[in-house]
Design a protein that fits this description.
The chain is built from 1 helix and 6 strands. The chain has about 90 residues and is α+β, with helices and mostly antiparallel strands. The strands form 2 sheets. It has a 4-stranded antiparallel β-sheet. A two-stranded antiparallel ribbon has the order 1-2. The longest helix is centred in the C-terminal third of the chain and has 10 residues. It is globular and about 35 Å long. It starts with a strand and ends in a 7-residue tail after the last helix.
Amino acid sequence: MSTTTTTQEYTTTTPGTTLPFDGINNPGAYICNWSGHLLRVPEDGVAPGRSPLINLVGPDPLTVTKISDNPFVTITKAKLLASNFDISVNF
């Protein structure tokens, strides 16, 4: 289940939404579906015109699942949130 809403700055994605890696456009904590790693995306990481931009190349599709709006969620809570969405973790 995925839902998106639009704000003035960017489209926000609710936790539990799976999207392509290059579709990340708002801050939060994400699980890399191909490896189970935790990906923290701070607000500066998605601000227009900011660097560094990350370009990740790999086999298609490289998808992530957002688990929290807070990019600095604790590891314990991140594991709990991932388990609520039935996502395997590797951190």
